[in-house]
């Protein structure tokens, strides 16, 4: 049915009528045939960008997703937690839909994340905020340059990706792998979310430090499915249960009356594809058109779709002359100036995907309800739309479903029009003429194509439990600190036994304790001594009287170093500082912030931390 409206074009092509549309159709082929060839290109495009064997990811560790092979202008040869999680969520869904060859890669991703969680980085350590570090080097070492950090959507999205695979494993009788490998990683991410959801951070575009609609939404989702997973495993996540309703309550506060404000700060209109992405990543095929969880077919999400996509109609030359109700090129937000502000493939696909999802939901529910909130959206695609409910037996229902399907396809056609013939998807395409721009072969562009393609084909992801959403009577802020420990088991072949820590590459029995040597550079005068004090009992629980003394045994004129070696249980995380005690007993503390450390497992059983007084 949705192809009816393209029929005249196809006929035109057959008779070679000399109109511009015909030329376009003949040049690129029909949408359906492009979609099916692009589907192959997109999957390969994703796989090329995943280490260790991806053809464009040379140097990336196993299971590590590079954002793009581009190493300059811009340099995207890093692994972002967000891009990786969204990519693997798409791959898990492809795997569940039948592409069984993807399973080893999914397991490699999960193992890599177990390791990555323990990497101390500028946002912190495993249990001190480090999970929201936005990006790492592709060999899983920290990226230490300046960046918009923290980005608090990462842990939530990663939990969601891993839970999707966990659900599959449980349904297929492999609960052991979920209990022993996946749950410990997921639990750390959930604890991150329950502790920090109410704090500001950088948005998904890495520019504004405030609260962000997408971030809050995906945090809510992770807590719901995290809690459900815990229950399935006979465990619990009490903090998920206590915080989720508060997060959901907060999510409602972004609504402006006509669209979702994407960021609470930044001084922009807040019209942003952030919110369209929110609708597709909150989509639950088992849910109704509920606006509290911003379901794609909800009145708020549809009203928002119109406001956000309309914001790009007049500003991009490539959108000139395109009528309301027909798809346009979609960017991040109208005020964008990155590469002069252009449409992005992934946002154009997302605009289509939301509409495919909505059509699925209406058909499943058996009716479409138009409210005064969503009326402007419907008027664009069905001019006689009026507030009310149209059951699936009415002609109006059929007309609306058909025209929204056609409308969705028209966004895909825009992307098609500006995709080169080899199918390569960069990050952006030029607002003036549609030429591809910025990072080449952006993994997320390919992943966004795959999810839109499946939405169009009615290949649905699993339900995540959106229907259970229940708003509390009143909103409040909140935070709950939960369990946090290094996940050390990545032994998929034998999930019952912890495996070799991945960081060393060698083969050994996991040491239960690691001897960590702390070297602290500090020039001291005779009679002064250096101590280490920290958040755990072994380091005096921040009590200077119980601090552990360092030795001056390695101190020389040219190397003013104090040291001490302390044994810790593998996986321990703590904060610490060095202090100086003078002969009279007076104590000088290092300046803030506290340092943090996580005791990662390794074959050697030893580790060294080099610091200098601050
Ligand atoms: C790099 C970020 O990845 C991008 O999102 C941002 O727009 C630019 N920096 C400019 O801040
Ligand atoms: C810039 C985008 O704004 C951000 O969302 C993305 O994570 C990075 N590029 C990497 O693709």
Question: Largest beta sheet, briefly?
Answer: 5 strands, antiparallel
CATH topology of the largest domain: Glycosyltransferase
What separation lies between the terminal Cα atoms? 69 Å
Helix content: 25-40%
Shape: elongated
Give me the secondary-structure category: alpha+beta
Radius of gyration: 26 Å
Description:
A hairpin with a 6-residue loop joins strand 7 and strand 8. Strands 10, 11, 13, 14 and 15 form a five-stranded antiparallel beta sheet that branches. Strands 12-9-16 form a three-stranded mixed beta sheet, with no helix packed on it. 37% of the residues lie in helices and 11% in strands. The chain has two domains: 440 residues, Glycosyltransferase (Alpha/alpha barrel); 104 residues, Immunoglobulin-like. The N terminus is likely disordered. The protein has 15 helices and 16 strands. Helix 6 runs parallel beside helix 8, helix 8 packs parallel to helix 10 and helix 12 runs parallel beside helix 15. The chain starts with 6 loop residues before the first helix and ends with a strand. The protein is of the alpha+beta class and 614 residues long. Bound molecules: 1-deoxynojirimycin (2 copies). The site of one 1-deoxynojirimycin (NOJ) has 4 residues, from loops.
